[in-house]
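Changelog note: in this version the structure field was regenerated for every chain. One regenerated record is shown below for reference.
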Amino acid sequence: MSRYLCTVALLAILGCSNDIYLKDGVTDGDTFSLALNALQDDDPALQSWVTYSLIKSACQLELGGNNPARASAYGCEFSARMRLLETWEEKLATDPAVEDDYLDQLLAVRNAGFLDEYTVHYFADDTWQVPAEVDIAAFRGWRRQHLGRHRPQTRLVGYWTYQDKRRR
């Protein structure tokens, strides 16, 4: 399924510029392009992050605005991380020997019922509308016992560009 999403995304972005735009050290743009290694590397962790990248960028494009690369919403981050884990589980079912410490830790978070809280705790910004049932206090207690020196990760497999270079 991930390879299909990659193929569809690649076809959709053909013809996009390979220039990467930065503003204040953050990638800017209105067009998301997958990195070429997304189609060439079958690494299960990488392909899981490809799914994340596609889901999140599609959501950001749907949010719109002048610079979708900077669009941020709880729903985008949460749904992208949920699909990341679903893809990772598919990869594990195919080959139980695959390993990725971060993805395995994130599975434990989700299995404990704290993916919402994890998403808010590590990635929220002031503009997010967070569901009322998110229990950050409960997550903090669980996190201290189960995550130790955990470092959150985001591996975006691609880059944002401007479709119209004049917008730089």
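Spot check on this record: Residues 2-167 form one domain. The CA atoms of residues 5 and 11 lie 10 Å apart.
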